[in-house]
Write a structure and sequence with these properties.
alpha/beta, Rossmann fold, nine-stranded mixed sheet, two-stranded antiparallel sheet
Length: 271
């Protein structure tokens, strides 16, 4: 899945994606309500599903990456006149390109960047979710692509950041009415609550006195008629024993054969 061909297709998709076309693709309701604040995006009903060939029309990446691409298409195709902050920007540029093409201004922070590289509006630089180097009420939106699950992670000798601290800092730099978007894998890697799929614990990270309209979209939990995407040996034998306590680990290992990695996309609005 990580072949040169897939890398080229990923870059090409990012470069050629057109906001207006994606607005048409994702207009209207593309999910099914499950419970209060939780919705499902089933593969068979996803706008990226090719019913004729019974496959995802996103032609590159793992099943998880296809969901990431589809969710970005759905959420970032209209950012006109918005100041948008990406937390942990990495190399994947689809959201960045869509923000700019649709009339917004992208700014990014990344902990792996040289600390002397201080970000300015419209460019990327050093920073992280717990330390955002911008004044209060600077942004209309803050988001992260496959980054939130790592903030409090212990793997690799990390110094975990508390989610309460991170979301207080994000709230500080958002304008009233500003929005957030974060996507993350479930049953894969990252902090224990993402590995174990504890959506209630994830929801508790969003203080109702600060955030409203909190919603969790579950992409690919219902993957039929597409293939199951089981957790890899790399994360099961590497991340899981470090992130999970013994009881959590044993519980997941016992049902591993039935697990399929899926993605959540979390959205909310600052009060």
């Amino acid at each position: 899945m990580h072949s040169k061909k897939h890398s080229i297709l990923k870059r090409w998709h990012s470069l050629t994606a057109r906001p207006q076309k994606l607005q048409q693709k994702w207009q209207g309701k593309f999910w099914q309500a499950q419970s209060k604040g939780v919705v499902n995006v089933e593969c068979r009903n996803c706008r990226s599903f090719d019913a004729n060939h019974k496959q995802c029309s996103i032609g590159f990446g793992t099943p998880l990456r296809k969901c990431v691409v589809s969710s970005i298409e759905a959420h970032f195709n209209d950012c006109k006149n918005r100041e948008v902050l990406e937390i942990g920007f990495g190399r994947f540029m689809l959201a960045r390109n869509l923000i700019r093409k649709s009339g917004g201004r992208w700014t990014g922070i990344e902990p792996q960047v040289n600390p002397n590289n201080i970000p300015v509006l419209g460019k990327g630089g050093h920073g992280d979710a717990a330390n955002i180097p911008f004044p209060d009420q600077t942004f209309d939106m803050a988001f992260g692509i496959q980054s939130i699950e790592h903030w409090a992670q212990k793997v690799g000798g990390r110094t975990p950041s508390a989610y309460k601290t991170c979301f207080a800092e994000i709230s500080r730099v958002l304008k009233p009415g500003g929005t957030i978007y974060f996507d993350a894998p479930i049953y894969f890697h990252g902090h224990a609550m993402f590995v174990a799929g504890k959506l209630q614990d994830i929801r508790k990270c969003f203080d109702d006195s600060i955030w409203q309209d909190v919603r969790i979209e579950k992409w690919r939990e219902n993957f039929a008629p597409l293939e199951q995407y089981p957790p890899s040996d790399t994360v099961v034998n590497g991340d899981w024993p470090i992130e999970l306590d013994d009881n959590e680990l044993q519980e997941l290992l016992e049902k591993r054969e039935d697990l399929s990695v899926y993605m959540i996309a979390i959205t909310a609005t600052k009060r």
